[in-house]
Amino acid sequence: MKYHLRPQTAAHDYAAELNPEQYAAVTTTARHALVIAGAGSGKTRTLTYRVAWLLEQGVPPWRILLLTFTNKAAREMLERVGQLTHVAPGALWGGTFHSIANRLLRRYAEHLGYRPGFTIFDSDDQRALMRSLVKKHHGKAAKNDRFPKGELILSLHSLAVNTGRSWQEVLESDYRHLARYEDTLEAIYRDYTARKLELNAMDFDDLLCNLLRLLQERADIRQELQERFSHILVDEYQDTNLPQEQIISLLAGAGSSLMAVGDDAQSIYSWRGADVKHILEFAQHYPQAEVFRITTNYRSVPAILNISNAAIALNTCQISKELQPARESNRILPAVIPAPDNRIEARFVAQRIDELMAGGIPGREIAVLYRAHYHSTDVQMELARNHIPYRITSGLRFFEQAHVKDVVAFLRLLSNPGDELAFRRIVSTFPRVGEATAGKMWASWSACVLPHLQQHAPSAQLMQPHSEVLAKAAVPAAVRPHWTAFLSLMDSLHPADKNLLPSELVATVHAYLEPYLRATYENYDEREDDLHQLARTVGDEENLDSFLAQVALLSEVDHSASPADEDSVTLSTIHQAKGLEWKVVFLIFLGEGLFPHRRALEGGDPSDMEEEVRLFYVALTRAQDQLYLSFPRYNGRSYDSQFCPPSRFLRALPSELMELWEL
Ligand code: ATP
Ligand code: MG
């Protein structure tokens, strides 16, 4: 193999393209360096220029290891390096921790007992394997017992890996309600590990652990890699977790140089095992480290910077890093928009985006950010209604989430008893109903219901006279209690004698499904929020059918939006927006209990509240030119509607920094 020892880099005028602090960091000769500075101060820019600089100094690209947090950030960073240096992105070792671990393990996994060409399990694979193990170990042990589903068992394990604890410790601290299953879990985890090895497969967490294990256990390989990577650079260092920090520490252990950049005020992943002390204690860990600070912000206009500085000052224990603006004012103050309710808020956002786009701002320069995924429900519906293309950078579209689909399936069946897919989805929530049983049950159901559909307009009223017949349908004995409960639920939702609003339908189905949802999905609490929001979004919509049509339409928009991706507005949780920037940012659902999140308020742990403040700071600092802060005074209009005072964050900011917009 041939390497460019002196790649053709367009020589840069580093001193002109960087400020003195950035320049000093880029050209440092210190072996260990930390750049710690506030948002938008050019930390990522510094790291990219540092790579260009190293290449110009003759460091071969394959000796540089560049690590960052999200795939999107990694891609963007490698592109920026490409533009700066003309070095092919593949020549460097750059990417997320997981992608780098994969690349290394491709070469070394045999030393850990894997055969060449291991496969990576995606979450579907993991779930399938876990499901079979639950069946094997728990099986028919206790009828109707709600043993945790595979997904939940997997997420417990994942939390353990990412915090460097044993699963038993995590069971004790975070999943105490599963303690009675400890022995079965033990057997399942043991089998899970063995089975993966047998299948020559690694899941996502294995990539991290196996790389760590390799570095810890194999001195020869550790040394080989230490010699290989002469320069290690890490972005977003404040969000590294323990195994990641250990990997870096081992790789940089011998003679390599290490540059970490980050901002402790943007540490927002502690719930996933990230530990801010890794950045705060960097200088202790690497005693010779040179520390650089940048005090200028290049991203935002002064008005946005002022509000951001005021926001982070709410954390009294945060290291103060007040930034000075580099940009001129555009004479637009951040707007605060109290909306009467969630739908009017969404309508405002869609209308304003429409105006901005008509005024020449492309959709890709606009983002709608929120604290929790479910906050985007109404905005998704409203954007679709206005034919504004959008993309969701993280997670599924609201209505594509499994638990939302579960509940919507009941609404669909109610509106159209001939909806076989909805029916099958529903009965597969019963324990031990597979394809075959579902097929038999559908045959009984359709024999009863379908003939009538041909004669009358579809209506749930059809079902009631037939529940007696249906109750006798040929369902396996084990399933019968669930079948009966399901039939009586459908009867109770029957619209003829009860005038249930769609929001009440959702609530009833939710209550019915709760035990299933709780046992099936991880973080039920968050999913519960989604279902409450679903009820609020259907609200008192007169017509269930038109609501369901809109839901179906949303998936349609998904596909038509993809070719014009460039012009799509971004919808993202704040967590997924880190490191990124947009000309215009909308931050929605800024109500007390929504953001800061109810759980941080009620939990009473001050460190949770501090993380909420940091998250707020991350959100505000994504904006370059315009910032809109909105909240619904009422979330929901009928059932379960919530009165929302404005977020304490809004109330704590000096009012002269913002402009109040009355709708
Ligand atoms: P975050 O904390 O959000 O990750 P950051 O500190 O990594 O932010 P960058 O994304 O590197 O900041 O920079 C923010 C913006 O400011 C970018 O558009 C970048 O190009 C610009 N910028 C940074 N430094 C300079 C500079 N010296 N001159 C001109 N523009 C700059
Ligand atoms: Mg950055």
CATH class of the largest domain: Alpha Beta
Low-pLDDT residue intervals, each spanning 5 or more residues? 1-9, 456-461, 556-564
Q: Which percent range fits the helix content?
A: 40-55%
Supply the number of helical segments: 28
User: What is the total domain count?
Assistant: 4
User: What is the average per-residue confidence, as pLDDT, rounded to a whole number?
Assistant: 85
Briefly note the CATH topology name of the largest domain: Rossmann fold
For the record, give the distance between the C-alpha atoms at the N and C termini, rounded to a whole number.
65 Å
Number of strands: 18
Largest sheet: 8 strands, mixed
Q: Which ligands appear in the coordinates?
A: adenosine-5'-triphosphate, magnesium ion
Q: CATH-wise, what's the superfamily of the largest domain?
A: P-loop containing nucleotide triphosphate hydrolases
Label the CATH architecture of the largest domain: 3-Layer(aba) Sandwich
Beta-strand share of residues: 5-15%
Q: Note the overall shape.
A: globular
Q: Please compute the radius of gyration using only Cα atoms.
A: 27 Å
Q: Which structural class should the secondary elements be placed in?
A: alpha/beta
